[in-house]
Specification:
The chain is α+β, with helices and mostly antiparallel strands and 169 residues long. It has six helices and eight strands.
Length: 169
C-alpha cells in the first residue's frame, strides 16, 4: 500500500492547505473568548436587588444614543451596563456583548434581574436589551425621544420582537 500525503488525500497543493489551515486558526483566534463577568464578592440576591433598585431610580431619564450615565441619558445597553456597575457587576457595553455574557434561559425561567433581548426592525442580531422586573414587566431605555420606563412583555409589539433571555449570575 502506497503512503499518501495529506495534500494528496485532500487533492490540494501544499500552499493551499497551508492557507486554509492558517485561515481556520485565524478565525478561531478572532472569535475570542466568551466574556465572563467579574463578580466582586456580592451575593446574588443582594446584587440583583441592587440592580433593580438602581434601575427603578432611573425611571424618567432620557434616551440618548450611546448614552451611559444619568446626567446625559442612556441607550438600552448603556442603561443595563450602568445599573449593573452600580451593583458591582462588570458587564460589557453593547447589547450583543451583554447577550454573550449571560447564561441563556427560557422565557418561563425568567426571574427579576435577568436580561431580556429583542430583535428590532427584523435584524438578524439582538439590538435591544432590558432588565426583567417580574410579573411580565421589564425596565429599559426604549428609543430616541423616550425615557427610561417600565414595559410589559405581554404587549403585542414586545412579544413580536422578543428574542431571548439570559442570566448574569
Amino acid at each position: 500500500m502506497q503512503k499518501e500525503s495529506i495534500c494528496t488525500l485532500f487533492n490540494q497543493s501544499p500552499l493551499r492547505l497551508l492557507v486554509l489551515t492558517m485561515t481556520v486558526l485565524l478565525l478561531a483566534a478572532c472569535s475570542g473568548p466568551v466574556y465572563k463577568p467579574k463578580h466582586q464578592g456580592i451575593s446574588q440576591g443582594k446584587s440583583k436587588h441592587s440592580v433593580l433598585v438602581k434601575a427603578k431610580s432611573l425611571i424618567g431619564k432620557p434616551y440618548r444614543y450611546g448614552g451611559n450615565r444619568p446626567s446625559t441619558g442612556f441607550d438600552c445597553s448603556g442603561f443595563v451596563q450602568y445599573t449593573h456597575a452600580a451593583a458591582g457587576i462588570d458587564l460589557p457595553r453593547t447589547t450583543y456583548q451583554q447577550l454573550r455574557a449571560t447564561h441563556p434561559i427560557t422565557k418561563s425561567q425568567l426571574r427579576p434581574g435577568d436580561l431580556i433581548f429583542f430583535r428590532i426592525n427584523r435584524k438578524r442580531f439582538v439590538s435591544h436589551v432590558g432588565i426583567y422586573l417580574g410579573k411580565g414587566k421589564f425596565i429599559h431605555s426604549p428609543s430616541s425621544g423616550k425615557r427610561v420606563s417600565i414595559a410589559s412583555l405581554n404587549n403585542p409589539y414586545w412579544q413580536k420582537v422578543y428574542s431571548s433571555a439570559g442570566r448574569v449570575f
